[in-house]
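Anyone else keep sequences and structure tokens together like this?

Example one:
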Amino acid sequence: MPAPIAIFKLARSLPAIKKKPVDKPLNILILGSGGREHALYIACKASLRVQRAVVAPGNGGIPPEDCREIDPCDALAVEALAAEVGAGLVIIGPEAPLAAGVADSLRAAGYLVYGPGKQGAELEASKAVCKAFFARHGIPTAAYAGFADAGMAEAHLETLPEGPVVVKASGLAAGKGVYVCADLASARAAVREIMVERVFGESGDEVIIEECLMGEEASIMVLVSGDTYTCLPASQDHKRIGEGDTGPNTGGMGAYAPAGIIDPALQQRIGTEVIEPTLRGFKKEGIDFRGTLFIGLMITEEGPKVLEFNVRFGDPECQVLLPLVDGDPVDLLLRCARGEPLPKTIPLRPLTQVIVVLAAEGYPGNYRKDVPITLPDSLPPATHIVHAGTRLDTAGQLRSSGGRVLGVVAGGPDIHTALQRAYAACDAIEMPGKTLRRDIGWREIGRNPRLA
């Protein structure tokens, strides 16, 4: 089956969204090219609010007529495209355009935008800025120190007791700039990689050295509209390339939601100790935040502590969260863009959603490119494929174009069923050298063993 037809069929396999028609359907412009943006496109195409969705630059999973090859960080090019599309809403997917101030430029031109301005985006663009924000507003986090000089950073390491320590590039590094070091020798090597060898370029102008928190990680995506917020279910990503959470960090090899580590009592505590102080901090500092606040958490014995803030949907978390919304996600994004109050809670489908990422051979190092991909003619129930690093060649053949290539998203009444469906689809996809983890959701499985 030709790739474009298969892709269209997979996108249409999502459950229908219950909603009423509106008088003036929107044209929506989505910025980005990854799996998150394809997931947003699918949600927009399923919405009766939406007349047309265009993605810039998009990927091979999105029909070519709905893709535009522009730089999403070029504010003038984005503004021109928004005018061409007649965009009633612009959704900014990745962090780089947000950090470049594209949302500010669009708002100044009169467009509704889902995504914070440059001031809010600094919370992700600079870990040093984010840590200082935590300190000013009493948000629980790891003890840390920041350095703009490699020698001073290494000297600081000499003052620390032997043991695990975390070293982070302060700037944007596509989720790969965090080193969890087992000892100080590894930490010194991480500082040199970031600041001397410049493996992340100017993102390594400054490093953060912080205590290594012990516990279990989880993430909460908070939709923020001025003084109001609402939370999507807790999710858990799998950052490391190898099973058992081994090997280097990646942009994410899989995720699931909801994550049982965060129960209602802990969710309430996170609201009181993290989310509400953050929104008060936004108001005090004049940050008009309209978008997703991604809270990366470590659940320690002392309680929740914040590892980081991101200012956009996580990728791959977005892909499992949107299908859980029992309603129209576009309505929520539009409310945020307008600065309208949000509901305290969101109706959810009683499902578990998982995503397994198929990466290129060699990722996250030097990986194979331009590998041909053949998708299956059919998929298990409640399963669809999201594209990330893909493209269509001139003959219509689907090929790989990035490190994280595809994401298989599956739902079910429990995590066992969802994973069974996801892995069956993964095995049916033909992609030479495909790399995946076979232990996605292992912590949740430990909390919910299958009954004999």
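And example two:
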Amino acid sequence: MIGMINGVCLMAGTGEAIVDCGGVGYLLQCGSRTLGNMAEGQPIRLHVETHVRETAITLFGFHTEEERAWFVGLQSVQGVGPKAALAILDIMSPGEILSAASLEDKTAFARASGVGPKLAGRIATELSGKPAPAGRGFQPVFTKPSGGTPNEAERNEGLSDMALRNDAVSALANLGIGQSDALRAVAQAYNTFADDPPLDELVKVALKELSK
């Protein structure tokens, strides 16, 4: 099984890319967000989910472990396959998926290409109250298309909100609040801020949400 690929991008097209690793070109299925951060001839490192079927072995590539974990987690819902999971990840960050699930916001999932209202409702219902899927424990790695060193904002893109939400949920859990209620309160509180707030402010607003 292949869990990570580190090499040079040979091609990034519609829905797929080829990465050269030691002279072998690996074909990976990728979402538009991942492909948008790849450029021909530039180094790239991707977290990989390998699907083995009787007739084919398919590699799916992601810039962060959080995205790969959600790709797997979304497919735990009946009716969600790789195509739908990638479509959701194209329009929502891991933190936004967790928020939509916590609030049972089926409209958010229905915005994804190929995800109808019925399936969107099933996703929102089945993932509601559940924590973010556990990943493999690796830190995300971003490689700039220019080959330069990513700055702090690029390193944290799509990741800082997830870490912040998890810390807030843990803080509420330490106060004796149930996981489902904590997830919902944090999601509601987070949506009241224009940017990532300090952890103590997020927890404070979440507690107010719980008191309503």
